[in-house]
C-alpha cells in the first residue's frame, strides 16, 4: 500500500451500487476490491459498506453471510469504515422499517421514517448539506455542499457529537455522521459529482494515514 493508493474493500453482500462505487474510489486513487471474503476484508486499509433497499433485509443478509462479526471487528479495531446511503443507516442500533431490525450498533440511536410532512417520500434529488463541525472527511468541501439523496428513512443519532452534517426535507436530518474512524453519509457519494468525489478522496486519505 502506498500513501497514494490505499486498499479499500467494498463489502459485497448484494445490496448497493458496488460497481459505481468501485469506479468512484478508483477515480480518487484507491486500490479497490469488491469482496465478502473475511481475510480480504481484514487485510484492507478501509471498508466501504454500500446499501440500497430495506434495512431488515440488509442486516439479514449480512448475518446469513456471516459478515456482521467481521465488520464489527474491523471497525472496532480502528480500521476506517464508511457506510454509504442505507449502509450509513446500518451503522446504527435499530430501524423501524418494515418489521424492524437491529443494526451494527457502531453508532447509538435508531433509524426512523422521515417526518417529511406533505413532501413525497422517498426523498429523491440534490440537497444541500450544512457542516456542523470539522472533520478530515470534509477537508476542502464548501459549506454547504450538495449531494444526491435517495431515502425515506434517516438515523437519529443519540449523541449530537456524532453528527457532521445536516440537511432538510420537511425536517432536519443527519446526513453525515462520524465517530472516531467510523463514518456515514445518507446520500450516494458516487452519484454526487465533484463534492461526492471529494468526500471519497478524503476517506481514501484517512485510510492511507491510518494504515501508515
The CATH superfamily turns out to be Class I glutamine amidotransferase (GATase) domain
Please give the CATH class.
Alpha Beta
CATH architecture designation: 3-Layer(aba) Sandwich
Strand residues, percent = 25-35%
Assembly state of the chains shown:
single chain
Amount of helix? 25-40%
End-to-end span in angstroms?
A: 9 Å
Descriptive labels:
single chain, 212 residues, Rossmann fold, 13 strands
Description:
- The longest helix is centred in the last third of the chain and has 19 residues, at 193-211.
- The model has no long low-confidence stretch (mean pLDDT 95).
- The chain has helices at 18-27, 38-43, 55-64, 68-76, 86-89, 193-211; strands spanning 7-11, 31-35, 46-49, 81-84, 94-95, 101-102, 110-113, 123-131, 145-151, 153-155, 163-168, 172-179, 182-185.
- It has one domain: 3-Layer(aba) Sandwich (Rossmann fold).
- With 212 residues, the protein is an alpha/beta fold.
- Helix 1 (18-27) links the parallel strand 1 (7-11) and strand 2.
Put the structure in a nutshell.
With 212 residues, the chain is of the alpha/beta class. It has six helices and 13 strands.
Give the topology, please:
Layout: E1 7-11, H1 18-27, E2 31-35, H2 38-43, E3 46-49, H3 55-64, H4 68-76, E4 81-84, H5 86-89, E5 94-95, E6 101-102, E7 110-113, E8 123-131, E9 145-151, E10 153-155, E11 163-168, E12 172-179, E13 182-185, H6 193-211
Amino acid at each position: 500500500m502506498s500513501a497514494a493508493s490505499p486498499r479499500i474493500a467494498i463489502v459485497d453482500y448484494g445490496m448497493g451500487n458496488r460497481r459505481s462505487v468501485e469506479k468512484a474510489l478508483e477515480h480518487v486513487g484507491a486500490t479497490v476490491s469488491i469482496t465478502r471474503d473475511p481475510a480480504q476484508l481484514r487485510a484492507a486499509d478501509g471498508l466501504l459498506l454500500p446499501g440500497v433497499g430495506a434495512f431488515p433485509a440488509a442486516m439479514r443478509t449480512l448475518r446469513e453471510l456471516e459478515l456482521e462479526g467481521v465488520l464489527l471487528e474491523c471497525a472496532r479495531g480502528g480500521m476506517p469504515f464508511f457506510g454509504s446511503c442505507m449502509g450509513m443507516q446500518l451503522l446504527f442500533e435499530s430501524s423501524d422499517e418494515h418489521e424492524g431490525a437491529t443494526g451494527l450498533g457502531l453508532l447509538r440511536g435508531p433509524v426512523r421514517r422521515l417526518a417529511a410532512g406533505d413532501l413525497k417520500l422517498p426523498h429523491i434529488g440534490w440537497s444541500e448539506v450544512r457542516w456542523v463541525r470539522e472533520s478530515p472527511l470534509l477537508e476542502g468541501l464548501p459549506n454547504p455542499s450538495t449531494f444526491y439523496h435517495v431515502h425515506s428513512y434517516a438515523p437519529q443519532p443519540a449523541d449530537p457529537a456524532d453528527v457532521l452534517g445536516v440537511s432538510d426535507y420537511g425536517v432536519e436530518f443527519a446526513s453525515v455522521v462520524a465517530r472516531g474512524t467510523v463514518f456515514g453519509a445518507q446520500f450516494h457519494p458516487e452519484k454526487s459529482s465533484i463534492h461526492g468525489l471529494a468526500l471519497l478522496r478524503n476517506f481514501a486519505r484517512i485510510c492511507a494515514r491510518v494504515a501508515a
